[in-house]
Amino acid sequence: xxxxxxxxxxxxxxRQRAPVPRVPAARRLLQGSWTYAVLALYVALVxxxxxxxxxxxxxxxxxxxxxxxxxxxxxxxELRYEGAPGLWHAILLIPAKTGLPYLTLNVISALLGAxxxxxxxxHSPFPPLLKALLPFTYFLLYQYAVVSRSYALLAPILFxxxxxxxxxxxxxxxxxxxxxxxxxxxxxxxxxxxxLMGIELVDVLRHRRELGRRAVKRQLAAAGxxxxxxxLLVVQLRPPSDLSNDIAPDLSAGVIxxxxxxxxxxxxxxxPLSLLVLGPIVLWFWRVRYLTxxxxxxxxxxxxxxxxxxxxxHDGVLFIFFLFALWVSLxxxxxRARAGWGVRKAMLAAVLIxxxxxxxxxxxxxxxxxxxxxxGTEALAAHIQEHGDGKTIFTTSYxxxxxxxxxxxxxxxxxxxxxxxxxxxxxANYHEGRKPSFxxxxxxxxxxxxPRPGGHAGREEQRWRRNLLAPGExxxxxxxxxxxxxxxxxxxxxxxxxSCWLDEGRHRQDLCRRRSVFRSCGVA
Length: 524
Known about the structure:
Layout: H1 2-10, H2 25-49, H3 57-68, H4 71-82, H5 87-97, H6 104-123, H7 128-133, H8 138-143, H9 154-164, H10 172-183, H11 187-206, H12 208-211, H13 213-236, H14 254-265, H15 271-287, H16 291-307, H17 315-330, H18 333-339, H19 341-371, H20 377-387, E1 392-396, H21 459-468, E2 499-504, E3 507-510, H22 514-521
Antiparallel strand pairs: 1-2, 2-3
Helix pairs in contact: 2-6, 3-5, 6-9, 9-10, 9-17, 10-11, 10-13, 11-13, 11-16, 14-16, 15-19, 16-17, 20-22
């Protein structure tokens, strides 16, 4: 019976299988040398950007939290304001607290990108052309490697999961541990990891007679461990009552348009083409019987992004997960035989189209980051170091007349990306110049604007604030040409329109007005 079952699934009786040819070591090295060349090119491109990329607020914020918050304070209190698990912050704890340079943040992200690329090149079942191009797609080369955020962890963890997948029931401990790590990356990681654990549990229960009682017990134990971790994450990330950036779910008709943008920005950036390439891809997953694995986590993440919270860089989560699902389906010989060569060719052609567009996005973004300032805060830090000695530094922004002298103003937070360049809190009107230096999403949060008679700005101050920064300047985005504008607005100048100034008694020297500060810093 075992032979019959094996024959029906693989199509070749065991005794008639051709022996695996032995390949000499020198030939194996020659065959694999191009993968090392691709890896070397990837490392060179990401490594070269280490000295050019200027981190923006999101990158700086995680570093400041790891540096200035106590360990208990970070995981029991501060992460509640972030709405994201703390694996990334845990990785940054040692370098941030031991005084390693701020550049270490970018080095860690680059190393994670290199690990993901190595795993893809050495272990993935993709055809050589696709394998050589994928490391240079937008999210793998740039957005989740050059830009240093927790999303840099997604590709290494998901690629390790793809390697373990064929033997996940034998290596259940490793599989569960990787799912736990994935859940601690971001809210999207929680949804994907929970979906994968749920799909596997249902599959084991469906085949419990063939697998046996022991396998079912082991799977139930793994699901129980994951459920406990998920419950702890829910408790850890429960929103505090003073949260200032609470986000209400969007249940309007606009959700449909948002879903369209998500699909478009995670594939080709050309709306009709993005829908067309999905056809062969969905057909492939259906024919190889991996549609549930691909569709359930993808649909859950898309709905979360559309209804709860979506920013352009989140679309890369879907792209990385798509690579995982494609990886495990191509690595299954039974599934490949089931699909047929024609369906496989159509699917690979569609994936190559998506890859081609994303390679273009990647290099447009890379070129733009080389030529322009990704964030103005590095130049601002240099300006403060040169001209701020002995002067009191404030952060402020354009605020409406009705806001009183104490207010958590969103317009000020982008300037906090300057804080990692100093070992102290440089803003005298935030926590009275004392640490912590990170921005807290609470109301109030320790940011104090100038005292104003009666709590309102006088006419002269109103005029001065309008002249300092008009409302229309609050988002001075200068995106490059091409699809990059749909994926990541790149700010030239201080992102978000925040401004700082030096207090020299009666005379105030503005540091962040677009023209003056960047003329003096030599970047515009």
